[in-house]
Write a structure and sequence with these properties.
The chain has two domains: 1-64, no CATH class; 138-538, Cytochrome p450. Helices cover 50% and strands 7% of the residues. It has 18 helices and ten strands. It has helices at residues 2-22, 32-60, 87-98, 117-126, 138-143, 157-169, 173-178, 180-196, 204-221, 234-246, 250-253, 265-293, 307-315, 326-357, 359-373, 387-399, 432-436, 480-497, and strands at residues 101-106, 109-114, 202-203, 415-417, 420-422, 427-430, 498-501, 512-513, 519-520, 525-530. The radius of gyration is 27 Å and the shape is globular. Residues 1-7 and 20-30 have low confidence and may be disordered. The structure holds protoporphyrin IX containing FE. Protoporphyrin IX containing FE is lined by residues 150-151, 163, 335-336, 339-340, 343-344, 347, 402-403, 406-407, 469-471, 475-479, 482-483, 487. Its cofactor is heme. Pfam families: p450. GO terms for molecular function: heme binding; iron ion binding; monooxygenase activity; oxidoreductase activity, acting on paired donors, with incorporation or reduction of molecular oxygen.
């Protein structure tokens, strides 16, 4: 009896001494009772860990199903504590160890990461329909009124209707042609604003954001956004929304805790939604009031209905499959605004950063612009002739894909990928960043070399899975035609109208910071100078 007591006490002391070295915060106690409690808790954690490993091993090895390999984690939290902020790079490192498909348990959720061309093809082609759900995080549900937008909707009739409407009414070639005037007006306004700030540092992302926002709001409700005070601060709100979509939220990994919103992320997202609501309610109410004052003919005075008008007319339709309520309209407007602005402005910034970092590239772009445009102002009709600039944009997309893990997908039934079982409801990422930096797919992938895109066989359709900055399969970005046009137009105009110099006192770097939209760590600031001799071209 005495022996057992001594053994127990020795054992306890051993654990105590070992643990105090590693986990001093846990063992920082100053009385016997606390010490005993800590010992019991530690033993409990160890026993739970053993059970956890046995359980996961049972599934993976001896098992009924063969899950993709991957690192072990802690009980309850899984691998969560070991993930770094740079998720795209961390996932790439893990794939070097475990292979092109690996799994991670994060809390109670099973995650799978696919990092090779062959397996990305399986997900986006062979099983495209199976993997077409999203499994949105809590914060995404809050900002999209419960997943009523396109990006976070599951693959169902509602999602198909919304997507079809966006593509046919906003992003069709016919509508993009009809809206050319908006793009010309807004890009010229931007050039004139930059002209007024010549010789002083300009935030490049901000210029791209405001130009894109004004074009998109003109297309959606016929008015550029910045004119009204109620749109003030929209960029900051959007940045907060994107940051909240990126920040790890324990409620997503351990759903029973979501009631408590322990990190306050959901409360913070609700605040952003209220701000957004005020903007969208104002615009919608304003339109409803204008409509009620006009005859039906007058609402279509230029022969073309804008998107808000089309949605409001659909709202009153009897057919349930095509009618929308106000909340659904707001969710769709939110989607289009955020999906188009942050991505485009981030890319304008990355392309400008790469050009300012590669003087040889800058010289070639200027030569091409001079040859195609002359010393005049850039028009949309010039864009298709700017082959070298197009290659520079594509190479920047390869090196800095703004959504490096695309948007997560989730299978609606259990299926096999690469010989492994992917359980129904898993969260699946395609690591586009890894694919676009893989030496198996690209020679010297770390080198910035636009020439690789000069052969004309590359586009943004996701057909060639080596290059998928807009995704691939049925969930591919529907905004490619507008995104591509706006990027080329803004960049060609900024580069042709101005000579850009980096401020001397600021250190230039090209590092990125992972996020739902992955941006430059340090915002790019550059100083514009007049490049075209005729000053009237800047008015
Ligand atoms: C440079 C510009 C843009 C980039 C890089 C970009 C990139 C992406 C990517 C990577 C996805 C996810 C695809 C996937 O999960 O496989 C996506 C989805 C989406 N994008 Fe874009 N996008 C851009 C511009 C736009 C524009 C201009 C619009 C609309 C006007 C738009 C609307 C959407 C929507 C609605 C989705 C969700 C599609 C769905 O889930 O069915 N995007 N985008």
């Amino acid at each position: 009896m005495l022996f057992t007591t001594i053994m127990k006490s020795d054992f306890k002391d051993k654990i105590y001494l070992t643990m105090i070295n590693y986990w001093s915060w846990w063992w920082d106690v100053d009385n016997e009772g606390d010490e005993l409690a800590c010992t019991i808790l530690t033993i409990l954690v160890l026993v739970l860990s053993l059970l956890w490993y046995k359980w996961t091993g049972w599934f993976t090895k001896g098992g009924r199903i063969r899950l993709p390999p991957g690192p072990y984690g802690l009980p309850v939290f899984g691998y969560l504590p070991f993930l770094s902020h740079q998720l795209h790079e961390r996932f790439t490192e893990i794939s070097h160890r475990y292979g092109p498909i690996f799994s991670l348990r994060l809390g109670s959720k099973f995650h799978v990461v696919v990092s090779s061309v062959d397996l990305a093809k399986v997900v986006t082609r062979e099983f495209d329909r199976t993997f077409a759900n999203r499994s949105p995080p809590v914060a995404a549900l809050t900002i999209t009124y419960g997943g009523l937008d396109i990006a976070w909707s599951n693959n169902n009739a509602y999602w198909r209707n919304m997507r079809k409407l966006l593509v046919s009414q906003v992003l069709s070639n016919a509508n993009l042609d009809a809206c050319q005037g908006f793009r010309t007006t807004e890009v010229r306004k931007t050039i004139s604003n930059v002209y007024a700030r010549m010789g002083t540092p300009v935030d490049i992302n901000e210029i791209g954001f405001d130009t894109e926002l004004n074009v998109v709001t003109s297309m959606l409700w016929g008015r550029s956004s910045i004119s009204g005070d109620f749109f003030d601060g929209f960029r900051e709100v959007e940045f907060k929304i994107i940051a909240l979509l990126t920040a790890p939220n324990i409620s997503d990994f351990i759903p029973v805790l979501s009631w408590f919103d322990l990190q306050g992320r959901n409360r913070e997202m609700q605040k952003q939604r209220e701000h957004l609501d005020r903007i969208l309610d104002h615009i919608i109410e304003d339109r409803i009031e204008t409509n009620s004052r006009k005859t039906e003919d007058a609402a279509e005075d230029d022969g073309r209905k804008d998107f808000l008008q089309i949605m409001l007319e659909l709202k009153d339709q009897k057919d349930a499959s095509t009618s929308f309520d106000i909340v659904q309209i707001k969710a769709l407007l939110f989607d289009i605004l955020t999906a188009s602005t942050d991505t485009t402005s981030t890319m304008v910034e990355w392309v400008m950063a790469e050009i300012l970092n590669n003087l040889g590239v800058k010289t070639k772009i200027h030569e091409e612009l001079t040859e195609v445009v002359g010393m005049d102002i850039v028009e949309e009709s010039h864009l298709h002739k700017l082959k070298y600039l197009d290659a520079v944009v594509k190479e920047t997309f390869r090196v800095h894909p703004p959504l490096p893990l695309l948007i997560q997908r989730s299978p609606d039934e259990t299926c096999m990928v690469g010989g492994y079982t992917i359980p129904k409801g898993s969260i699946v990422y395609i690591n586009a960043w890894a694919i676009q930096h893989d030496p198996k797919n690209w020679t010297n992938p770390l080198e910035f070399k636009p020439e690789r895109f000069l052969n004309g066989k590359w586009d943004y359709s996701g057909t060639n899975i080596n290059f998928l900055p807009f995704g691939s399969g049925r969930r591919i970005c529907p905004g490619v035609p507008l995104g591509e046009k706006m990027l080329m137009y803004i960049l060609a105009s900024l580069l042709h109208s101005f000579e850009w110099i980096l401020p001397k006192d600021e250190e230039f770097e090209l590092s990125d910071e992972f996020g739902f939209v992955t941006k430059k760590t340090k915002p790019l600031v550059a100083i514009p100078f007049q490049r075209l001799s005729d000053a009237t071209l800047y008015e």
